[in-house]
Amino acid sequence: MDRFARVTHYSTSISMLACLIMALAGFLTFGDKTQGNVLNNFPTDNVMVNIARFCFGLNMLTTFPLEAFVCREVMTNYWFPDEPWNPNRHLIFTTSLTVTAMTMSLLTCDLGAVFELFGATSACALAYILPPLCYIKLSTRSRKTIPAVGCAVFGFVVMGISLVLAVAKLIRSTALFLIADEGLLTFRA
Hints:
By secondary structure, this protein is mostly helical. The protein has helices spanning 3-30, 47-79, 87-107, 111-138, 146-174, and strands spanning 177-181, 184-188. It is 74% helix and 5% strand. It has a two-stranded antiparallel ribbon with strand order 1-2. A hairpin with a 2-residue loop joins strand 1 (177-181) and strand 2.
């Protein structure tokens, strides 16, 4: 195994282990009351949790430019494939991506719902659908492509189920009914 593959496997394994430990610790601590962002389960006046929230925000802040770079490059290559670099187009794409992300972040209070929707779509596509489709496209049709077709079908099924469950949970959690009670509005889930 070459060095890049080894580093990729080790880093992915360490990341998976860290995520599993955090998920297990959150579930064992809070049970079925665990929120999408486990830091939301802790009180707001806890210093250590606030440091963890700050680090999480810093992580998001430093990750966004990388994500915007990829998205901006895809947009440029899709809509303007043969045109040279244009600073005005670059500014418009970057500003639109930043304003869109900022608007979405201001409109939602629970990152868990956002993570569920993105996980239901992009994670399934990146893990189970796109790699086997690339394999099928790049290889000759034979019995070796049957598992790839099965993996892609499985990915579409998982994506559909995950998307339906995430949207149903989002609708269920935001379905608040306003009830007028002696001129006072009360919220009931």
